[in-house]
Design goal:
- The chain is of the alpha/beta class and 517 residues long.
- Helix 8 packs antiparallel against helix 9.
- The structure holds xanthosine-5'-monophosphate.
Length: 517
């Protein structure tokens, strides 16, 4: 275990991911963590992250010097580096020469564990105003830059080191190597955290939590719930029942992938509820986006509730109890909502909010410690098909919020066909991993004149909304090559009768959201 102490930068989660990429398990903890709490967790190392503030700013978070007397190896990055220097008796000053962005770094040439075998000149990513001007006693200065006379220091005997630059960002040429040198050479960590070890560990934890009780899990068709369910299935087999509510708002082939491919890959016991009619009825005449979302959410929870009750009753008939509900909560949700147990509640409320009091379950969250890329690796390890593991993010209300206007069965069929063509062509062009997602939106209440074959048509436009993003909070429209767009457009207008125009949305987020409703 490596603890990344978060000083409020956007970088702490990224550092934790990089540590995990080196096959060492790591978690983010707030900077308010005490020395006793650190010792209780017995980490192999600490990493002090960057932070937005100057160590001189009022209220700037400080590091208790006692941290460095615990014998736990520590690595300071950017703000963490300066805070470490200050705590140990070095000097941090406003030098007036801040550095931001790509910066040349020069090694001092002295023996260095951090930079072992790396080039004397290298490019690093900097972002600082203050600089360390004198290293604390016992440390060797191993690199410098124009604006940071002490850009790296290390005291390998005490297991302490730090760098002014950001090794975790890709713009730092040898960042991962520097981080791994700290982990393996300075801190003596070992690269044992692998995908199969994660599966093994989670399987054990789920077994310990669930015991002989029964578990229920709602499958959405998305990757998180699929991987969570597959893990729990691996752990407790037929004690798990999955519920898949087919609301008819999924994309082409997705329901089949859940009902057939997922079941074939996992052997999971699946209860499918065909609620397509019910959702269409609830959506009849509804055009307002919020009303649509609410209607879909309300129907979903009612149908799920009914199915869960049936699972409970069926178990009861065998003298068994259903006590647990599986949730695909991921690590970023846990960190962002503050870490502890309360965090899980916020997210789960969100997902199954609305279950009545007489139908409450304890949560099983086997992905709580994982980032999305790790969830995908675990999914592959568990033998899930690529189509599920690499599925794009897809909104809960599904195609319902991609039909602008009333949702009808005919319109869903049109959108499903157009969407399938766009997906096929983007996949064929090898763009799946570059594009975050590409909603296809049917402007069902707009018509335009066209000519198809030798006749005049009066059809509907679809909008392609390919975006690139890190986390869906912000996004930019993807520069999909013109020839790929041309193929999508030609195929949709040829193959989907009701559509006679294909348009491209070139709005970033903000100001536009990713979805149209
Ligand atoms: P927006 O449209 O807000 O979407 O930019 C951001 C991301 O969230 C997805 N999205 C949803 N996901 N339930 C979900 O589970 C929803 O109601 C929902 N609405 C939007 C959207 O696809 C994008 O990835």
């Amino acid at each position: 275990l490596v603890l990344v102490v978060d000083f409020g930068a956007q970088y702490a989660q990224l550092i934790a991911r990089r540590v995990r990429e080196a096959h060492v398990y790591s978690e983010v903890v707030p900077h308010t963590i005490t020395v006793a709490e650190i010792e209780a967790r017995a980490p192999k190392a600490l990493i002090l992250s960057g932070g937005p503030s100057s160590v001189y700013a009022e209220g700037a978070p400080v590091v208790d010097p006692a941290v460095f007397e615990t014998g736990v190896p520590a690595f300071g990055i950017c703000y963490g580096f300066q805070a470490m220097a200050q705590a140990l008796g070095g000097t941090v000053a406003h030098t007036g020469s801040s550095e931001f962005g790509r910066t040349p770094l020069r090694l001092s040439g002295t023996d260095s564990a951090l930079f072992h075998g790396l080039p004397v000149e290298q490019s690093v990513w900097m972002s600082h105003g203050d600089a360390v001007t004198a290293a604390p006693g016992g440390f060797t200065v191993t690199a410098s830059s124009a604006g940071a006379p002490v850009a790296a220091f290390e005291d390998t005997a005490r297991g302490l080191a730090g760098v002014q630059f950001h090794p975790e960002v890709l713009h730092t040429a040898h960042g991962q190597a520097v981080l791994e040198h700290f982990l393996f050479e300075v801190a003596g960590a070992r690269p044992t955290w692998t995908t199969d070890s994660i599966v093994e560990e989670q399987v054990e934890l789920v077994r310990a939590q669930v015991g002989g009780k029964r578990v229920v899990c709602g499958l959405s068709g998305g990757v998180d719930s699929a991987v969570a369910a597959a893990l729990v299935q691996r752990a407790v087999g037929d004690q798990l029942t999955c519920v898949f509510v087919d609301h008819g708002l999924l994309r082409k082939d997705e329901a089949r992938q859940v009902e057939e491919d997922f079941v074939a890959a996992t052997g999971v016991r699946l209860k499918v509820v065909d609620a397509r009619e019910r959702f269409l009825t609830a959506l009849a005449g509804v055009t307002d986006p919020e009303t649509k979302r609410k209607a879909i959410g309300r129907e979903f929870i009612r149908v799920f509730e009914q199915a869960a009750r049936e699972v409970v009753e069926e178990a009861g008939a065998h003298g068994e109890q259903v006590e647990f509900l599986v949730q695909g909560t991921l690590y970023p949700d846990v960190v962002e909502s503050g870490g502890g147990a309360g965090a899980a509640t916020i997210k789960s409320h969100h997902n199954v909010g609305g279950l009545p009091d007489d139908l409450q379950f304890a949560l099983v969250e086997p992905l709580r410690a994982l980032f999305k890329d790790e969830v995908r690796k675990v999914g592959l390890e568990l033998g899930l098909p690529d189509e599920i593991v690499w599925r794009q993010p897809f909104p809960g209300p599904g195609l319902g919020i991609r039909i602008i206007g009333e949702v009808t069965e005919e319109r869903l069929a049109v959108l499903r066909d157009a969407d399938a063509i766009a997906r096929e062509e983007l996949t064929a062009a090898g763009l799946d991993r570059e594009i975050w997602q590409c909603p296809v939106v049917l402007l069902a209440e707009v018509r335009s004149v066209g000519v198809q074959g030798d006749g005049r048509t009066y059809g509907h436009p679809v909008v392609l909304r390919p975006v690139s993003s890190e986390d869906a909070m912000t996004a930019d429209w993807s520069r999909v090559p013109y020839d790929v767009l041309a193929r999508i457009s030609t195929r949709i207008t040829n193959e989907v009768r009701a559509v006679n125009r294909v348009t491209l949305d070139i709005t970033s987020k903000p100001p536009g959201t990713i979805e149209w409703e």
